[in-house]
Design goal:
Elements lengths: L16 H14 L4 E4 L5 E5 L9 E6 L1 H9 L2 H24 L4 E6 L6
Parallel strand pairs: 3-4
Antiparallel strand pairs: 1-2, 2-3
Helix pairs in contact: 1-3
């Protein structure tokens, strides 16, 4: 007899180190009262800020597989540079999201974003 758990779909893979870093930075950038939640794909997440008079600021972050692999294969010094570039992108997009509340601004993290 086959175990029932063998028929279930596999769970989502672990987050990449880049995804983990992006979520951590997004929480810092969005500030207190913000929410970071998983998207409907493994390397995607939402950031929602506290409600404002005009609406709720929202940002959807996608991390491309190649960017995650490049980050994982980079040296620690290269990763530090990539993290700073990621931070700049997140700050810019969150600033735009805060100005355009009620819309969902996407941020695609690709290899070019990190270079």
């Amino acid at each position: 007899m086959q175990r029932p758990d063998k028929k279930l779909a596999p769970s989502m893979p672990d987050e990449s180190p880049l995804m983990y870093a992006a979520k951590r930075i997004a929480r810092e950038v969005a500030g207190d009262g913000s929410t970071v939640s998983q998207g409907n794909r493994p390397e995607m997440f939402w950031v929602e800020g506290p409600r404002q008079l005009q609406g709720i600021p929202r940002m959807l972050v996608f991390i491309e597989t190649q960017a995650a692999e490049d980050f994982q294969n980079a040296t620690p010094s290269q990763q530090a540079v990539m993290i700073e570039r990621l931070r700049v992108s997140l700050v810019r997009t969150w600033s735009d999201a805060s100005e355009h509340t009620g819309s969902e601004l996407p941020l695609h993290i690709d290899p070019e974003t990190l270079q």
